[in-house]
Amino acid sequence: MTSIEWYNTTNVDDQKIGLKKKQILIGSLFFLTAFFLAQSVVFEAAVPFSVPFWAIIRTKYREYAKFVLFGSLAGCFFLGFGQVLILALQIILYECIMRFRYWQLPQSIAVSLAVLLVQIMWQGVMYQGLPPVLVQFYVGCEAALALIMTLFMQVLFVNSYEWFTTHWTYEKLGSGLVVFAAMLTGMQTVVISYFSLPIFLLQLFICFGALVGSVPLATVIGAVLGTLIGVAKLSFTGMLSVATLTGLCAGMGAKGGRFGVAIGSILPSVFFLFYDATLPLDSVYFTSIAIGSILFLTIPKKYSDKVRDKLFPQREEVLLARQNWLTEHVTYKLEHFQHFVQFMKELVFDRFMTAPVEAAKEVAPMNTCLSCFRYDHCWGAQNNGMDKLMTDWFHMKGVGKESAIHRVEEQIRYKCVKSTKIFEELDTELYRERINGQYFHGKKMIALQLRDMSNHLNQLIAEMKEDTISFVSVEKDIVERLKEANIECFQLDVLSNKPGARKIVCALAPARVNWEKDTTLAERMILPILYEIFDEPFEIEKVVACEIPFRHVQICFRSAISFEVEYDIYSMSKDATLYSGDSHALFQLHPGLFAILLSDGMGQSKEAQHESRKLIHLMRECLNYNMNPETAMHTLHYVMALKQQDDMYATLDFALVDLQHGDLWSWKAGGMSTYILRGKEVLKVESNAAPVGFLSISAVEAEKRKLKAGDVILMHSDGLFSSVADWDEQEETFLAFAQQVASTNKTIQEKLTTIMQSFQGYFEIEDDCTVLMLEVTHVVPTWAVFRPAQYSMSKSS
């Protein structure tokens, strides 16, 4: 075993040991609580607290039910064996009532009914008939107190996670005092020499309440505990005054710190010692409160701070004010920088940005032609097509086809007597045009990059100016909807509320039955609720089972994409060589955005392959750095134009598929048409922009198309269609085969292979060829009642 494996194994073992110790500690506390509640006798006759405690723990803390059962039976054993049998019968009857399928009673009613029926039968057997009126009164009081105590315990003993995640309300505090008072009445017999456990705990509790909540909390604790203890014993009701005044004085001494609380809590007992001789203020009492005061002084400050935060949570106005100040301060600085960016954008783009004059379809005569004796023959009334040849020369230079350039130059030499000087002047004019285009693209690239920076700053400022508690209202809305559906979610955090990229973390109680998974509730109930609230699908990203600080499950939800894309690629090189001028890339920028890149280098050589691959690589880098697509296209135009090789260009067909909203954005720089097949309809996306690196034409505009489920997208390089056959005829044939195959039930790989085999049966592919086929379909969530594909198949069958 390696050191890493040993370390991981040791950590797991330590966690298991720590969890086991925690369970034993909590189980011991429940055992002691059940033991003292079983010994709590009210009106010196009724024992009403054991069954309510069993019912609550059995429901909400099932793993600790055995500790409660043994503690209750052990406590009743000290009251007599008959009380043990009564408690056992009451628990059995309660379980029978709760498990009765056809009559579901509230828990408090079931507890009261079980206590009442068992006591009636038991007392009837003991008295062999109708018991005395006083006994009947005690039985009724025990049933009523069991009902009331069940209600108090339901408020106090919440689910385990709520002890750590929710603030304590006054209702919960009052319920805790009632249960604690019942435990104190069961501790009356725990007296060791001069030490009384109930008096010690009463003093400690009052002092701690004074430290946490000052006068109000300490007075309430003293009054409630003194009243309940006095009523339970039917004597010493004067202790109510002692406990209440103790809480008042301890709270008043809270300004003096812990010592002020301790001294203030002892003064009322000293006063009543001389004022009322009937109170049981003996040496046991004073010894116990002294020990309680001393132990109070040793309680760590962190425990009192935790309790204070639960009872009196700090207001968030200070934090919100500080956050608002920080937001305003940073926004002020960003706005200054934003003004600078805006000034630079206007300086570069709006004021001094003028597009270069594009070459006219009919070029003007060169200076050499103006001084030539054959000017009229070439450019005058006897025009022999010299203007058309020069126009074709500029065009072929832009396309970069050597054979076509050579053919045009031969025609010029045949008609021109000064062809050498004409070619020199044409090269100079072409160089000047490219320099102008390069200068224009440099300015436009900087302007677009400044615009992107401005947009990023605008977005940042807008996010900072948003309401700082906007997530809180969203979280409250979701929690309310979950409560309406009776889903126990004790913590919910909205990490991101951006449409299409939302992220929500929900903490739930683990599955309580064997057949249920931890994700069952999330898949079948929470996912549909989130879909209704935000009107977009969600999916479960991650499920984590946690044991600390209590056992729970954290489920992370995120926005699911509405569409998904399945694609296939057909690629071949001319004459089956190793080098192809075509390059492509299909990848996800993030789960909701799919990118498609197709580039065709000029020629079939290794240089053409290098050029197209370099263009694909640069475009991916720009997109990975969140550069705007238009800015990226113009940046690549500028960068590729600085290369040293002459006449090496590459086309770029770039598309983005928005999988969240179903949009197709297309940018083309010399790329071929993109086809969208929608049943019998064909949508074409075209562009007249020049290839990347050729700067005479600079416009690269975006085309947007709305997609639907079932659409098929086809993108291809120019090698698909032969230069010999009619272009329109080839396009019609290709689309006819594509429409015919797209509607079949074959896989997309089989579809594309069938299309290309059928097309090559009619036309020969004589150049490097790449065809990309993408099929857009809806994403069906796992909780959906039906799937469209299954529905359509069953309908057709």
TrEMBL record:
Q: Which residues form a coiled coil?
A: none
Q: Which residues cross the membrane?
A: 29-55, 67-93, 105-125, 137-157, 177-197, 204-228, 234-252
Pfam families per record: SpoIIE, SpoIIE_N
State the UniProt keywords alphabetically: Hydrolase, Membrane, Transmembrane, Transmembrane helix
What SMART domains does the database record attribute to this sequence?
PP2C_SIG (SM00331)
Q: Does the keyword Cytoplasm apply?
A: no
Q: Where in the numbering of this chain does the PPM-type phosphatase domain appear? A: 564-776
Entry superkingdom? Bacteria
Q: What is this protein called?
A: SpoIIE family protein phosphatase
